[in-house]
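Researcher: I'm preparing a figure for a lab meeting and need a structural model of a single chain. I don't have an experimental structure, so a prediction will have to do for now. The sequence is pasted below. Please return the structure as tokens so I can convert it later.
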Amino acid sequence: MRACVIRRANDLQVEDRPDPSPGPREVTVAVALGGICGSDLHYLHEGAVGSFQLREPLVPGHEIVGRIRSLGDGVLGPAPGTAVAVHPATPCGTCRECREGRPNLCPSVRYLGSAAHYPHVQGGLVEELVVRADQVRVVPEGLELERAVLAEPLSVALHAARRAGELAGRRVLVAGAGPIGLLLVALALRAGASRVVASDLVDAALERAARLGASATVRADRPGAGGWPAEVDVAFEASGTEGGLASCLELARPRGTVVMVGLPPATGLGFPGGLVVTRELTLTGAFRIDGELEEALSLLAGGLAVEGVVSHVFPLAEARAAFELAGDRSAASKVLLRLEK
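Model: Understood. Here is the structure written out token by token.
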């Protein structure tokens, strides 16, 4: 089989690897599509994501859909040919966080396409992927894989929305109109938010948010310009930037809620923390996904408006070009690799 492999910073290859076989309680998935995430781009361009350094070649990718190829011993289903999405995490199941129902915060979790452990956890941008049987979720009948592949990033947005609480009737700001930000716009609108404003530095990203139905879009580098809300009830920081967080805190009403979903720099983050105190703001984080994958698939099958979130689809042979385009936010949103043999 072929695989997309990051060997070191700025060295991406499409390589041949042995066909995998499932062990007990495992399945083989013939991968159809995989999304390129920001963390994948960090591994390529920097050889690391935060403190997770590449120490061996890594297959990236954790946004995966495909069809069951084969079942290992002791696995009764899904039957070969069934369309599935793959949950990227395998938490330990025994730590305090797992026992208390927070497996996304498990300190020992193994995540597809991650260098957090050594040997690394190889990811899903391959033609065939072996995972534990309990990691696959059946794609609802009639849901096309081109939409189903958004289930994992939509789960990230769902998790962040849950951290914010009720959105119906509330004024919402989404700082950062990348794929996660766009999906947050879609979820806030579906939840009945009274106004949803998206901010970004890139006009093309704001145009995508407008097409999804955002009430207003504003340039993050033009504070005070038309369209900026006077205040909001809930703000989602989806850019991972100091400026984005400052905007969220400055616009949140007294006792409003700010959810950080974009991963900020490891050091040097400064923000107007006094506002958290004087306005009694709730500032919280949202990390990865928990049990949202099934709901995400259901929402996608039910017609959630996500048009324009996926901007490009490349064949595996053109993986390098796909990664280069994925890093250009003026030209692309979510970029996919097609991995079917």
